[in-house]
Amino acid sequence: MAIADPALALSFPPLTYAKLSPGPFLHAHLSSDPPLRPNTRPPSAFRPLSAHTGSLTHPHGSAVVRLGDTAVVCGVRAEVLLAEDAGDYHPQPTAHTDAHPDGTPLTAAELATTIRNETHTAAALNLLVPNLELQTGCAPAHLPGAPPSALAQSLAHRVLTLLHITHLVPLPQLLIWDRPSTPAAEADDDNGPRPEEAHVKAFWVLYIDVLFLSLDGGAFDAAWAAVLAALRDTALPRAWWDEERAGIVCSPLRAEARQLALRGWPV
Q1: Tell me: the pLDDT tens digits for 30-64?
Q2: Nearest to 38, CA basis, from 23, 56, 57, 59
Q3: DSSP designation for 136
């Protein structure tokens, strides 16, 4: 009776070894000369990155990002939060952070303090709400019907922290003002009525939903790139306070939407 060759009997395809023992499998490839990853990518080479914005119709901003074999979809949805429901808030009557109400430019120290105060206010009011979900089937470890994984919660927390410490979204971009119909420059201090002081009637709350379609490494890099691209694509509708309705009214016209201006591009 023929005896099977032990070497042939214990032979498995490389993909099987990668699933059974991924750590040693990767280490063996990186220890080769020259060192290469299992997908033949050098250790110092980045994954190929591609991004496409405006992919979704209903959100106010969206992006699809691919980082190697990792695919992420991000959508930004803006909702109105009335100031009366957000607690006490008394901002300066200006829509800019680089000048005083009278137009005098801020010093560097004053500007840094103003930006920090804005970020603190945005965090206290929860104006930026990231949510991250790992789609069923995006990786073998994520099974259907399972609760949110520790990885998803950790990534969402890191995205929220980075949004705040980078001061990426200026607070004035998220304010909806009740401005007087008569500009202050046209009012006569001696003869005419004094205009009412402008004040905030509502805020824009940005819900940032990140969905992983495929996960093959570089999870945080892909999620952050998708968030940046989606925020850069976000356009907020023109909104105003309607006295008759006693509420905020938003224009349905895309031409009147205002592009969200970000502070830099922190990558």
Answers
A1: 777 787 777 677 777 788 899 999 989 899 999 99
A2: 23
A3: T
Q: What is the CA 26 to chain-centroid distance, rounded?
A: 32
Q: Report the distance separating Cα 243 and Cα 246, nearest Å.
A: 5
Q: What is the 3-state secondary structure (H, E, C) of 151-190?
A: HHHHHHHHHHHHHHHCCCCCHHHHEEEECCCCCHHHCCCC
Residue 8 above 70 pLDDT? Answer: no
Q: pLDDT confidence of 88, banded at 50, 70, 90?
A: low
Only one residue has tokens 């930004």, namely 76
Q: How buried is residue 116: exposed, middle or buried, by Cβ count under 10 Å (0-12/13-18/19+)? A: exposed
From the list 216, 101, 227, 105, the residue with the least C-alpha distance to 161 is 227
Report the DSSP pairing between strands 128-134 and 199-214: parallel
